[in-house]
Amino acid sequence: MSQIEITPQANPNKTAAKVKVHSPLYDFWRKFRKQKLALVAGVFVILLILVAIFGPIIAPYKPTAFDYSSVLEGPSAKHWAGTDAYGRDIFSRIIVGTRISLFVGFISVFIGAAGGTILGLISGFYGKWIDSLIMRICDILFAFPGIILAIGIIAILGPGLGNVIIAVSVFSIPSFARIVRSTTLSVKTTLYVEATRSMGAKSRRLIWKHIFPGTLSSIIVYFTMRIGNAILTAASLSFLGLGAQPPSPEWGAMLSDGRDYLSTAPQVAIFPGIAIFITVLVFNLLGDGLRDALDPKIKE
Amino acid sequence: MFSYFIKRLIGMIPILFVISIIIFLFVHLIPGDPARLVAGKDATMADIKLVRQELGLDKPLPEQYISYMTNLLHGNLGTSLRTKDPVSVMLAQRFMPTFWLSVWSLLWALVFGLLIGVISATKRNKWQDYSGMFAAVSGISLPSFWLGLMLIQIFSVQLGWLPTGGLDSWKSYILPSLTLGAGIAAVIARFTRSSLMDILKEDYVRTGRAKGLKERRVVWNHALKNAMIPVVTMTGLQFGFLLGGSVVVETVFSWPGLGRLLVDSVSYRDYPVIQAEMLLFSLKFLIINLGVDLIYGYLNPQIRYE
Amino acid sequence: MSKHLLEINQLKTYFFGDENVVPAVDGVTITINKGETVGIVGESGCGKSVTSLSIMRLLKHTSGKVVDGSISFEGKDLLSLSEREMRKIRGNDIAMIFQEPMTSLNPVHKIGRQIQEAIEWHLKYSKKKSMERTIDMLKLVGIPRAEEIVNEYPYQLSGGMRQRVMIAMAMACEPKLLIADEPTTALDVTIQAQILELMKDLKAKKETAIMLITHDLGVVAEMCDRVVVMYAGKVVEEGDIYTIFENPKHPYTRGLLKSTPKLHEKRDRLGSIPGNVPSPANLPKGCKFAPRCSQVMEACLEQEPVLKKLNDGQCRCWLYQSDSEKEGVKNDSSSLS
Amino acid sequence: MTAAPLVEVKNVKKFFPFKKGWFRSKQFVKAVDGVSFSIKEGETFGLVGESGCGKSTTGRMIMNLIQPTEGEVWFNGINLTELSPEQLRKKRRDFQMVFQDPYASLNPRLKVSDIIQEPMVIHGIKKEERIHRISELLETVGLHSEYADRYPHEFSGGQRQRIGIARALALNPKLIVADEPVSALDVSIQSQVVNLLQDLQDEFGLTYLFIAHDLSVIEHISHRIGVMYLGKLVEVANKDSLYEKPLHPYTQALISAVPIPNPRLKRERIVLKGDIPSPANPPSGCPFHTRCPKAFNRCKIEVPIMKKVYPDHVVACHLYD
Amino acid sequence: GSKGASGSKEGSGTSVKKKGKDITIAVQSNFISMDPQDTNDTQGYSAQKTMMEGLLGFDKNMKVIPVLAKSYKVSDDAKEFTFYLRKGIKFQDGTPFNAEAVKVNIDRVSNPANKLKRYSLFSLVKETKVINDYTVEVILKKPFGAMINNFAHPAGMMMSPKAIKKYGKDIGRHPVGTGPYEFVDWKQGDHLTVKKNPHYWRKGYPKLNSITFKPVPENGSRIDMLKTGEADFIYPVPTEEAKKINGKNGIEMISKPSIVVDYMSMNTMKKPFNNLKVRQAINYAINKPAFLKVVLNGYGQPLDSVLAPQVQFYSKQNVYKYDPEKAKKLLKEAGYGDGFTATLWGDNNSQAMKAMQFIQQQLGLVNIKVKVTPMESGTMDNKIWSVQNPKDADIQLYYGGWSPSTGDADWGIRPLLGGESFPPNSYNTAYYKNDKVDQLINQALQTADPKVRGEAYKKAQADIWKDAPWAFLATANTMFAKQSYLKGIYLLPDGSLDVNQAEIKN
Ligand SMILES: Nc1ncnc2c1ncn2[C@@H]1O[C@H](COP(=O)(O)OP(=O)(O)OP(=O)(O)O)[C@@H](O)[C@H]1O
Ligand SMILES: Nc1ncnc2c1ncn2[C@@H]1O[C@H](COP(=O)(O)OP(=O)(O)OP(=O)(O)O)[C@@H](O)[C@H]1O
Ligand SMILES: [Mg+2]
Ligand SMILES: [Mg+2]
Q: ABC transporter domain: from which residue to which, for each copy (chain D) (predicted)?
């Protein structure tokens, strides 16, 4: 018989060179590239980031420049998004405000997500008293009404944008923790986690390498969803005098300003509203794309 | 299961105790002098002094805490510094409107959210998906005051069908609950979609199809229950927040609920009311979380509580 | 001979990946008659499951698509039925037992409910009656304490029990055609024996035709009337059971038989077919089996043979093609190995 | 081969608690109910038995994935049940498992290369070595090395199981608990894998606990075989003895039920009657008496104990007293 | 004096008709208490005034008028006040109104042990004597010239002595007075309803059957209620919307000058505001007409004294004309040619934020960099009033508003600018202390003689104006809107409502 038996020592040198493993990043990009909508959203996000960086340069007017001769004007060629009660150019304010809003929205949710994810993983994975402890802490955080928490945090740390970010992060920690915990609970029972445990994996590795990726898609979805929420929360904090100080053009604060002019000069609220909407939309679309690209089972 | 339930209920007692201490300290740490705020804008120092005595705020903090706790243990939540009403009566008055509003909002949100989520997940990347998700993103990013005022414009001012606010009849619930529900529906829709999309790839969904079941039945009966765990978590949270009362919606719709009471109490540093409300919120979250955990157990039989 | 119950003709089912097209099933022709049991054997990945999913039209939610060929069931063209008409057939006229017992049952529904559902749906039974039938079915497939098991969840059962549940589910509506994708793989022999008996019974009583996908040649020998051997998305040999076991034509079929361990047979090593199943993304040019074949010829590497009708079956191999097709590559099989 | 046993299982039991309804008291599924056996180094111990009789549970207890309710598991002279978690973790590289379910035991989010690497990463093997070994292992189990770049869901069942085997082999363990490793494989690959496992054993002196229900494979690969029924071992013998003169009626039934790949051969089968009893509520006396064609009165009352009938052949049956 | 009135009399749109005589009034916030002696919000008084009356009261222009008292007499030393009561008046619970009832009320509020919020208005009362059934005499501990206005203040409204006895501390939930309407029910946060008092002493009144007050905090919602007819009267009306709704759908918008002053105080004890030139420069640097236009949408007047024109003893001063050049010059003279940086504190409501941003921009033009810090009220209170020693005060600029609810100059000047009113005692956030002014304030309190008092306040106002401890900004108008069929309803300059003569004329 002329057949070749497959043995463990079969030409190790020859085959070793043949292994070609693409980096996960490459795979990810290859898949992400296929998601047209997410790509467009990604371009928008980059655009937003550019606007955030170069906002003050590209804005046609100074965002704080008052002009009492043109107060509460509707959109026109001169003022694309009209003017507010002080005659400030709303379009310029939105452009310049991108930085603050994006920063607050993104960073605060990021911190909240990071904290919440760690807590949720630990809680779901270890169970028992650690789970109870963490979940009870979350309960307490949940039970603290937002404003009280914010006032408290700012009272302890002092006012300022940085502390607003902390306050908003603290808001989102328990939500993330609970979401991550619940997915952890179901991923934990899978056979592949048991298989990895049987190899002698440390808990830390089990959590990060095997359970965490399983929770990632719900994290991403919630993350992108929270960004809009965070911008609005930060706005209400500025409104309490706890955040970005006037006249800095923070979107949420602009939106709240517009509340008084909703029927007389709707542009004051509508345009910042649209800015928030677009931001939330593109982050959501991007999140969906990321999620799909991270999911090995989807092939399209 | 039952003993688990009882255990959790008993477990709440020490938690509530700890929470009450945290709440007390936290509330007293917030800057602001209730005596001055309660006494009013043109009060004199003498007025303020009187108010402070009247409210017992002149005593040292530990003494105040002890009397707060003894009252609490006797089931006495104290009286409002501002209105001098018993706090329990105030909360009772405000709780039911908030509760029913929350329930209605949640119902709307579940109906719309699940519907949109399921349709989007099953019609992935078709126009139904895109419009569903567009609606959901709108729900997330639309400030509720805006939505509320728009609804009033349309349904009250233009069409004259529904009242602009207040709580007079069942009609009063419609607009505020829709406003509140929109954001939650959006969240539920997003979660349902993403979670359901995962589940639809599972083998047992294929088994359902192989049985010849209608796609609708496969999705709603077989896939959805599996997909509900993250959705239930979210919904529980949202219900909790709802029960706290939404300041914005209560303001827009002149709703006699807990949210406005809290804001008023905070701006007047009405300690007994703030403390009682926060204690109520804690209890409410504990109960909701317990409920959510029990629902987990129902949804995923493999998660067992012993 | 009566009309064929199922006729698969030149079926081609491809998967469309992001970079390549995977021809998982590439021109398969199978016929099954009423009451007949046809075994489909072949190496893992050769397209057996995809063929069965194509029949059931369950590829809709994957990247797979039937690109060519036809499937007719009782004269109806399954591929052109509406989804609604197809639903009436699924689970009722054609039932399927899936390969993966662990993931094919819904983890959050009770066992009983999952079986009952199909009975209620297709046979229009009442709740109570369908539950009774469910319990009967479970008992039939040898599930202990069936009355209790109906109220349990899949995770509480061992793999074998789950597979029996799957079988009970598939047989509950007494289908005309049962597609069994490795139905006894996870079972122990005593239960396997019971189930095989059960399937034989069903076949005898209801004239159920069975398409039995398996790699256990023992099961094939016991159950089947005819055998279709597949390799790399194609049928390589087809013949009645005795021919296949006693006079296998294709080198692949022969290899398979040699690889099968037999009871009381003392061998130091099992025979085996060397090499791997070619990856469907880059199949060899000529005969797909050529790289692993012990009787490979020049022609094998150049051109793919056709499925040729022989007097006792069909075979896709140059060894049996007519002289004019073979030309100069006759008889020197060993010279190339 | 005469050295001290590598694995010694001493009277292990595993009772899973379960509850019905909210108020009823706890009941137990006696998945494994007092099993003892030992495996010598370099030996293959085959474990056969009906589905649900506790084979996997026994395997998982040896792997220390679940704690025995009672009893001890000794490995290489160490009582695994007494080790600290960290000591146990380190020890784990010496015993690996191949799982019954090739679908759920591979992390769907990891590539094949990562799955196979995982045990090596866990036990701190250098990267170059790992890369080298991945392709070696893939070839070993009969997969193209280009598959390293794919995800498990892109494979058919048999292919996945080979990945699982490659993973178990990665650390050159002393013991492999193979829980029905070939039942999802087609014959040609099954024979390759069985041959492969045998080769590995010859070369590295590996020890196997080989769980299967295919008696012909078990016969081929095992040196000694244990037959389980309802959480208990009913017969342990070396291969030749077991297949030539099976003693326990259950073993006899098992062997007679194996399908023979010969369409003309119609054998006399011992068909077992009756339902398989529930492990939550096992019958009194001999657990098999409810289905045993040779049962007599004593079987219902008295639990048979293991007796040596031939050298290297023990059985728990009243017929041989 | 309705010089600033800008409401049109008749709506130009379709006129709307009303069925029945029950009206709904939408107000901004929740009521806190119905005990006038324990109330400190104007809105609470608006509701109470439907049910209760005082010995004296205010007319439309904040002039003191007799109500339950026919007339009164004040001793020269402003220590003894004698009231002659109307006869035949009964409280809504049937208790007769007489001197004894007055004594019960005044005793209650002037007793510190009762810890009532309005104690301070009556803290000087030494005793109340019943002279006969319809004559009472109130004797003060020391002269207090402004006392008559305190009696006219809604805190001086009379409650039934029987009810006080019956309900004790709970009287705030069960108001019983002599007013044209009697209490029906009150659900916190939802509504408060009063109905016609059939035994009201003034013949022909009231003309409505019932009034329901509803707290509607959202500006837009209040207007919508008016549009849908759910409300017949709303206040306040946001200035932004005022012009838009006026005249449509039978809605009338009415705006009248108030006694509320908008100002920005400057900490006169701290650099650079201890320099008069700096303070004057700031006054010159702010364009008041622009302030009115931007912040108040034109509904208001420039502030031309520390008091609003309708406050008793107001005296007009020469407005600091908008002159940025002069401001710059003054700053240069003061040594701040390159400007400086300062922080401006204020409330976080939208009107205050607007005002502060306006000031920020205006001062920016003269090189003063202002950092605006709007604060939640509790937090700000803490920052301002927890300071024990003036030297520790962090406050630099503070934007605020003040309404002297007694309508008298004393309450408009002393708490804000009196030398003894530094925080935490009172509201002198400018830390302004001018001995001469203090002396004048004191002098005015020693007598009830309007001439003497007027003279003193005139001088004081002039001195303060010169010292410029504030940037004098504006007095805002009161704003309300109603259905055109609703007549005889108006807001007093202090922002409280008078519904007693309201009627429906379709
Ligand atoms: N969803 C899918 N996406 C891409 N390729 C697939 C998919 N399902 C199956 N394939 C490919 O199609 C080919 C045939 O697969 P199939 O499952 O039919 O094999 P099989 O004969 O059933 O094997 P086994 O005996 O292992 O079950 C395989 O190469 C597999 O990789
Ligand atoms: N986690 C668990 N909780 C409760 N019961 C369990 C659990 N795992 C297994 N069992 C029960 O224990 C018994 C033995 O299960 P086990 O998986 O060991 O069987 P097995 O011999 O491996 O069967 P198979 O051949 O089907 O794999 C079964 O009755 C099963 O229902
Ligand atoms: Mg298959
Ligand atoms: Mg098993």
A: 7-255
